[in-house]
Specification:
single chain; mainly alpha; Methane Monooxygenase Hydroxylase, Chain G, domain 1; 2 strands; Run_dom_sf; zinc ion binding; cytoplasmic vesicle
Length: about 130
């Protein structure tokens, strides 16, 4: 199993975060706080009317104060519960929402690249992750 001490885990999480932040449009909340991929994931899952346990878990953690921290915790939660590919796929279903959040260079706007990324992420479902949540 992959644990918190695995060098590969840190590289994987950094790459996932890079992909989710690459060509992300700058958006701000009502109070001026910069939105991040965490906000995109929350909106995408809410649009699919998915009561996602990972979102509920992460929002219950009082220590997490920033969207980036919440996003990282969500990625870890999904890896442990083998839900990452499915969760992201649900967020990618609406092309209009993708265009609201990402500029044209984002790999998520390319159907071929999006399918490749999701295929690789579904392969991760076969890996066991034992991470501190």
């Amino acid at each position: 199993p992959v644990t918190d001490g695995s060098r590969e885990l840190h590289s994987l999480c950094a790459q996932l975060e890079f992909l989710l932040q690459f060509d992300l449009k700058e958006r701000r909340s009502f109070f001026g706080q910069r939105k991040d991929y965490w906000d995109f994931l929350c909106q995408g899952l809410a649009q699919r009317r998915q009561e996602h346990e990972g979102i509920r878990f992460v929002t219950s953690l009082d220590k997490l104060k920033t969207p980036v921290g919440r996003g990282r915790a969500f990625l870890r939660y999904c890896l442990v519960h083998r839900q990452l590919a499915e969760s992201l796929q649900l967020c990618f279903l609406d092309p209009e929402t993708l265009c609201e959040w990402y500029y044209a260079r984002s790999p998520f706007l390319s159907p071929r690249r999006r399918a490749e990324i999701l295929g690789i992420l579904y392969e991760l479902d076969g890996v066991t992750f034992h991470l501190a949540l």
